[in-house]
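Subject: for your reference before the review

Hello V.,

The reviewers asked for a structural picture of the protein, and I figured it would be easier to keep everything in one thread rather than splitting it across files. Below is the amino acid sequence we used in the manuscript, unchanged from the supplementary table.
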Amino acid sequence: MCNHVNVYGDEDEVEPIGSNNRPLPKKRKGPMDAFIAPTDVDFVPNVPNTNANKKALENINNYICEFFYDNDIPFYAAKSDSYFKMYRVVVQYNDPLRDGFRVHDATLTHQMLEDVIVNDVGEKNVIQVCMDNASNYKLAGKWLTEKEVSKIYWMSCAAHCLNLMLGDVGKMPLVKETVKDAQKISIFIYNHKHVLHLMRKETKKREILRLSVTRFATTFICLQSMYEKHQQFRDMLRRDNWRRSKWPKTKIAIEIVKKIKSSNLWNNMQTCLKIMTPIVDVLRMVDTEEKPSMAYVYSIKANIGETTLEDRDLWTKMERIVDNKWSDLLQKPLHCAAHYLNPEVYYASVESSVEIEANSMIKKGLLQCIEKLA
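And here is what came back from the structure prediction:
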């Protein structure tokens, strides 16, 4: 039917599958070939044939098969030219060349910024420079904006700051333990096809979003996805299909069942979501281009202040995390001015306008912006 794709170049490992081992048809060029970079058909990756690599190859084959099974893709699709071309390109891929040109020195970063702003764009055309929070960027931005005649503001990326906040929240013991338990449940379900089938049947094919380490916000989304289905997990454990299966008697399943039935886990998960929600709400806003987000960044602290937690120690830790990032990165004159000039906030109620007018920090930030940009 199809061949195992040997990504390691060991000819002894290539085995035809199925009785009909006909050669692949000759490559035909189509209209899309003009837009796709050519691949080296004779490319063979130079990887030693070790037991570890054989295990890696076995995992690759298993995941490819799982992809075909889960998405109902017919096996003959593996005989298409595009399928083999895709894997050749993946194997040939290397890290981007730009990695060799990364700059970590603040002086050089400042020189590059000044060159672009003064020579290419023109200083009078620049109001704000927004960058990530790496130390070289922060120092270069400080030098750039401290010139006496400078009308430029340096701002840290709000999305990056909020992700750092969520990263610190994720290090809190309660959150860390809850995420660990959620991972165990998710891994158990997705590693056993019969259990996965029962879960999908109970949730009407709604998936659990898998926990990832790429962005801290994904932790919130995954916990939210799991919490929404916690009653369906419990219902699944009461079904005859589960009771008649082999899993209730296995050691690993007994531990998972205990966690699912525990009210403590779901209460802790609810607390984690309460802690993260105000930060994630603003992160969603600043990470999209639906509306200008600058005017809403200042309201983060107010939204967090409205969150109610019974555990005062936990609340104190949360406030400390927010304050550390807030005072250093997000409490800037431009944020204050944008908050003051945001009609959605200012005219939300009579009380809100009075509070804003009485806030000396907001008024001071507004006046600093007017003075600097005048």
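For the response letter, the relevant points are probably these. The beta strands are 128-131, 153-156. The CA atoms of residues 193 and 199 lie 10 Å apart.

Happy to draft the paragraph if you're swamped.

O.
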